[in-house]
Design goal:
This protein is α+β, with helices and mostly antiparallel strands and 411 residues long. The chain is built from 6 helices and 12 strands.
């Protein structure tokens, strides 16, 4: 029973080590992704000019880079803790193995001493011949055979157990080396973070000196955003009116119903599409191909670094590399394509009573009325080579007239 419990303990120890190794692999994957994000941000910063009009965008990129760097440091801390736990588990396992090994050595030593005292083969023969009958002699022969086999097994088990201990010690040494590597990497990341925070501070100081120019630029962008919003709402109102007119006239073979008063009256197929869209919240693909970073988030909020500066956004702004395409986040129908100064060409895709808006396109690959599929390219994102040299997609999500934060919907 003791041996069974010990075996169970060792199996559980191995299982825990396995889980910890899987955890470390997961942390490494997250850290590599964060490093890739920083690599992209560095590239975007190199491509983004230092013009006054684009300084705010550079500051947003730097802020995103700092967040990614802090994430890497936190992940490194978690990896170090996970390795420390693994090392503790391995040390406990080695102690258990050494205890078990010592027990086997002691038992083997006692058996050898016992044979030596009985003068080996002569005593064995006398032990057999002194039996009361033939059956007892056979039992004694089997006993000696089994005893001899047990001794051989014990000797082999001692060797195997010693080899297992040696392997565990080698594994422990690998963990120590891995931990030292992570600690050195963490120190390096902390230095990079300090440098980036100093750069961010410099950018903030420069922007503070250009406060009037910055506020004028923000006012212009806010007006452009309002114009875009008016155009989107105009298109939505026209679609709702059209669907309502079809409903009243009984046009088409399918009956139309709206989920809410004054909402878009959907056909049965559109209702199913709408439900499918809603069920994919948190799993929609990002509306860009390739690598990207979010430089402006949803809603109205104070800028985290600049005093007296408020940011307004009805969606999110996604910066990527030149030549990147915008893509549909879900199956739907292109219901509107229009142009607004500051946002170039915009495309609206309807998914039942949900709508997605893709703005700042330089080329459009679809036309009004087209059915599009999830991840289908719908146009090329505009690259501002004259000023900021940036490639930014403005993306919005709405349910009827209600503006939604797109980020929780995206994978």
């Amino acid at each position: 029973m003791k041996y069974t419990l010990l075996t169970l303990f060792l199996l559980l120890t191995f299982a825990v080590c396995g889980q910890k190794s899987a955890r470390i692999k997961e942390l490494e994957t997250q850290r590599n992704k964060a490093l890739a994000d920083i690599e992209l941000t560095n590239k975007l910063l190199e491509e983004t000019s230092r013009s006054a009009q684009n300084s705010l965008n550079r500051l947003n990129l730097l802020s995103q880079q700092i967040l990614s760097r802090k994430k890497i440091i936190n992940l490194l801390n978690e990896e170090v803790k996970a390795i420390d736990k693994e090392m503790t588990d391995i040390n406990q396992h080695i102690s258990s193995l050494e205890k078990e090994l010592q027990g086997k050595k002691d038992n083997y030593a006692k058996s050898v001493q016992g044979l030596y005292k009985r003068h080996n083969s002569q005593d064995k023969l006398l032990f057999i011949l002194s039996a009361d009958n033939f059956t007892q002699s056979l039992r004694r022969i089997r006993y000696l055979q089994e005893y001899s086999a047990w001794q051989k097994r014990q000797a082999k088990e001692i060797i195997v157990k010693q080899e297992e201990i040696n392997r565990e010690k080698e594994e422990l040494e690998k963990r120590r080396t891995g931990k030292q590597t992570l600690l050195a990497e963490r120190e390096s990341e902390n230095k990079k973070l300090s440098s980036e925070e100093a750069t961010q501070k410099t950018e903030v100081q420069q922007l503070t000196k250009k406060q009037k120019e910055l506020q004028a630029d923000l006012k212009k962008k806010r007006q452009q955003a309002q114009n875009l919003n008016q155009q989107i709402e105009k298109q939505i109102a026209a679609e709702i009116a059209r669907a309502e007119a079809e409903k009243k006239k009984g046009k088409g073979t399918e009956q139309r119903t709206a989920d809410s008063k004054g909402g878009y009256a959907m056909t049965k197929a559109e209702k199913q599409l709408s439900d499918n869209f809603a069920s994919n919240r948190g799993k929609l693909p990002f509306p860009v191909t390739g690598r990207y970073t979010i430089v402006s988030t949803f809603g109205e909020h104070a800028h985290p670094q600049l005093k007296n500066v408020r940011v307004y956004n009805n969606g999110i702004d996604i910066q990527t590399t030149p030549g990147t395409d915008a893509r549909a986040v879900f199956n739907g129908e292109v219901t509107s394509i229009f142009v607004v100064p500051g946002y170039n060409t915009s495309v609206i895709i309807r998914h039942g009573n949900y709508l997605t808006v893709y703005s700042n396109l330089s080329e459009v690959y679809v036309k009004k009325g087209d059915k599009v599929a999830t991840q289908q390219a719908i146009g090329k994102i505009f690259t501002d080579t004259q000023d900021s040299n940036s490639t930014i997609l403005h993306f919005e999500l709405r349910k009827e007239k209600e503006k939604l934060n797109p980020r929780p919907w995206l994978d």
